[in-house]
Write a structure and sequence with these properties.
Strand 1 and strand 2 form a beta hairpin. It is built from 12 helices and 2 strands, in the order H-H-H-H-H-H-H-H-H-E-E-H-H-H. It is mostly helical. The termini are far apart.
């Protein structure tokens, strides 16, 4: 008993316990990651990956390189996941229309099936965020709270996308796009992949349930529209009040000049 007690007081005992804890935690994470990857890979077939590789080589390898390893003209796509490809290609941002500060939205160049096949190929190169399923995109179920989504949006997104999701300018010609009409799937994919200048909001930052709330809030904005008339970019009461003040003052000055000219 005395020898065991001395070992417990050894100065290296704390370090040994810490190392054991890190090894156990790392092992559990590795097993969980492998299980998730295996589950994601079962959702696509080998033929999807093969067809996706053909499409990638024909349309994407010029910039992203063979095997999606990246070149001077495009980053590596290894590990970005299927969700990133589905977002970029599904919104028409990729392939690029022209070089610029950021990719522009345009009509998609590929069908849904071709997009899914390219996403399957890129996902086979390394684990990454998967395309979200219908269960996390459904905003009609119980427990979905658009009010909470609005609060989360204002805390995490409004500084770039505007409090009314109307979009806004960033630095060096970049911008945060307006979110009107964006599908729930693409909104969710943007949050988990962080396209362009957007940060990544993984499940540790914003849980899947909170992402549902944010999507529900954006859907409410789309449904309501602008019941008060022209929203003037939804920039807020200060800018809108300034616009009204300047416009009203201009009308008063013009009316004054007209009265003066009439009296003379």
């Amino acid at each position: 008993m005395k020898a065991l007690s001395q070992r417990r007081r050894h100065p290296l005992a704390a370090i040994a316990l810490l190392l054991m804890g890190l090894l156990v935690t790392g092992g559990i994470y590795a097993v969980a990651s492998t299980a998730n990857e295996a589950q994601a890979q079962t959702a696509v077939s080998a033929s999807d990956v093969e067809e996706g590789e053909k499409l990638f080589v024909a349309n994407c390898a010029t910039c992203h390189g063979m095997g999606a390893s990246g070149t001077e003209d495009g980053p590596s796509l290894v590990g970005v996941g299927a969700a990133s490809v589905d977002f970029q290609v599904g919104t028409g941002r990729m392939p690029l229309q022209m070089q610029g500060p950021q990719a522009q939205v345009k009509p998609p160049q590929f069908t849904d099936e071709q997009t899914r096949q390219m996403a399957a190929y890129v996902a086979s190169l390394g684990a990454g965020p998967a395309i979200p399923g219908e269960e996390v995109l459904d905003t009609t179920g119980e427990g979905v709270d658009p009010a909470n989504g609005g609060e989360l949006f204002r805390v995490n997104c409004a500084m770039c996308h505007n409090a009314a999701a109307a979009g806004g300018a960033l630095t060096r010609g970049k911008f945060a796009p307006g979110l009107e009409g964006v599908s729930a799937k693409h909104t969710y994919e943007a949050m988990v992949t962080g396209p362009q200048n957007m940060p990544v909001f993984n499940d540790a930052n914003i849980t899947p349930e909170e992402k549902q709330d944010i999507i529900a809030f954006l859907e409410v904005i789309d449904e309501q529209g602008s019941p008060g008339g022209a929203d003037l970019g939804a920039l807020g009461p200060v800018s809108e009040g300034l616009f009204i003040w300047v416009a009203g003052l201009g009308v008063i000055i013009a009316f004054t000049v007209w009265l003066t000219s009439r009296s003379s």
